[in-house]
Amino acid sequence: MLAFATRRLVLSIPTLIFISFIIFMLLQLAPGDPMAQVPLTVPPEVKEKMRQALGLGEPPLVQYWKWLVQVFWIEPQVFIDYLFGTSLSEGKLRVISWQTRSPVMDIIIQRIPQTLWVVGIAYIVAILIALPIGIYSAYRQYSVFDQAGTFVTMVGFSIPPFFTGPLLIVIFSVMAQDTWWLPVFPSIYDTTHVVNSWESFGIQVRQMTLPVMVLALQITAQLSRYMRASMLDNLNQDYVRTARAKGLSEAVVVNIHVLRNSMIPVVTVIALGIPSIFGGAIITENVFKVNGIGQLLITALFANDLPMVMTLTFIFAVLIVMFNLIADILYGLLDPRIRYD
Prior knowledge:
By secondary structure, this protein is mainly α. Helix content is 73%, strand content 0%.
């Protein structure tokens, strides 16, 4: 397993470089000009100097090489300087956002906590809810619980977040103010809120509730159906009948033998869904005004901020490759018969 993981890590380097090159060239073909927002009163010679300062006057391959050096060489030095107080990156040019004129990685690091508070917790909540529902629905196939779970998951699949979000705002932020039995939750996420006490943590939980509910509904609907289908496939296998014939209890058969094999395809879905946490939920973040990564990406796209878009999409590619590897390793832990030697 260690040799397999090492090979995959080594092969991931040229893979990511190739992906970054494709992303960069596609963005170069995108229409738009970052100087389009400059007022018409600015003289042409000043605009030209601004373009050169942004690196727009250089050939695409030169720009790509500079971006590679900045991401793979200078940014790690910045991280080392932050950890150990050194000055390795002092005076070196980092990846600069065309929109804000500040380092791209600094902006991303500022936005990640907001996204993790909402999207990350929604993903954890969805996993904790979806797996038991899928397991019990498969074990009690066609029961009332299974029928109700199927109905709820179909609703979760069918209703998009841009409808669910405003609906929950109307119910829990508007209508709830005139009732005594409905709890009232904030409709706008306060990104400036700092958690430094139990009281502030309670406020944070309240403002996270609605966006987490919207996202968890969608993720739960997907994962529970995968879990149910995988469990049903394994419940009818010969090894299950053999385990029951040996006198093993039903809890041991279902929760150990069947569940362990059923988790293999579900692990893939969970692992490949984790990068979407860092990508943010674009629609939900905009509905609830969460100042996260998803909103940052949309803003950068509208502003034609190529360094920001390039860096964000490359980070997503790195996460996808990394969690693909983690999923493969988990296969071997869940099923000892799987070997990569």
